[in-house]
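Quiz preparation item.
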């Protein structure tokens, strides 16, 4: 089957087309120009400058110390390496606490080369999403295990396990889409819940520890290359370097496995 990989650069409106046409989206984090070039040339659709950079690049225990300037620095480096992938940048901790702060941060990130910003949560963030979207800033929402809420959660734990939490997440997912988000990352939620949320929405869902029922998948670059970052390795992580034999080969193996539905399997998902 022909994929977007062989054709034109990704755009934000093309995300909904992909969902409608049943084409799975392959997303990877990147933080520098060289890795971004390899990812872009080997079939990655969406590149995320994640605030995970606080943990895998800067050596922190959480994403909380990451600043907008940090994300903008890495966004500039990555943007110069892309021809085809859509570039999404994280709004780091509390940079989206108010609509005005989120707008300032998003302007900085779009001017650095991002084409969409990602923010965590629903609740008061719905107003932030609406405010940004009304100002032509495309938004990716992020629900489930939202790492910026690690202090509230008391650790990095699977979310939506009981009935009430699952119902809340399902309602939040509908609410972020109604507020105007055009993509939704679901992190560490049971497969059945992520599958139900994916069926509820017309925007694509991207899973990480959310099972095979999402419209696409994302992994953190260092996890996908089997690099020891000093943090606990979550269940959903798979080392594609072992399979691919080279970094370019790992990217191709990951992209192929996401597109053909063989990753993630039950071993890399939560029941
Ligand atoms: O910061 C990040 O890399 C992320 C992904 C794990 C989705 O948010």
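Solution:
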């Amino acid at each position: 089957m022909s994929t977007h990989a062989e054709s034109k650069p990704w755009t934000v409106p093309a995300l909904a087309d992909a969902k409608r046409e049943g084409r799975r989206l392959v997303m990877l984090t990147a933080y520098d120009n060289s890795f971004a070039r390899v990812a872009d040339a080997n079939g990655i659709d969406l590149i995320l400058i994640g605030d995970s950079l606080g943990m895998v690049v800067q050596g922190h225990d959480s994403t909380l110390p990451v600043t907008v300037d940090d994300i903008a620095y890495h966004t500039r480096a990555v943007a110069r390496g892309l021809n085809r992938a859509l570039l999404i940048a994280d709004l780091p901790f509390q940079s989206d606490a108010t609509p005005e702060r989120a707008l300032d941060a998003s302007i900085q990130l779009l001017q650095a080369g991002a084409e969409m910003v990602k923010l965590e949560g629903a609740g008061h963030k719905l107003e932030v999403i609406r405010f940004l979207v009304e100002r032509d800033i495309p938004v990716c929402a992020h629900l489930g295990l939202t790492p910026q809420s690690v202090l509230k959660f008391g650790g990095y734990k699977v979310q939506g396990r009981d009935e009430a939490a699952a119902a809340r997440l399902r309602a939040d997912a509908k609410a972020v889409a109604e507020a105007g988000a055009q993509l939704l990352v679901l992190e560490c939620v049971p497969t059945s819940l992520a599958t139900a949320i994916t069926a509820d929405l017309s925007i694509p869902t991207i899973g990480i520890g959310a099972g095979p029922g999402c419209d696409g998948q994302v992994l953190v670059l260092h996890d996908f290359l089997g690099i020891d970052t000093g943090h606990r390795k979550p269940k959903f992580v798979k080392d594609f370097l072992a399979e691919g034999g080279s970094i370019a080969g790992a990217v191709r193996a990951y992209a192929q496995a996401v597109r053909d539905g063989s990753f993630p399997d039950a071993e890399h998902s939560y029941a």
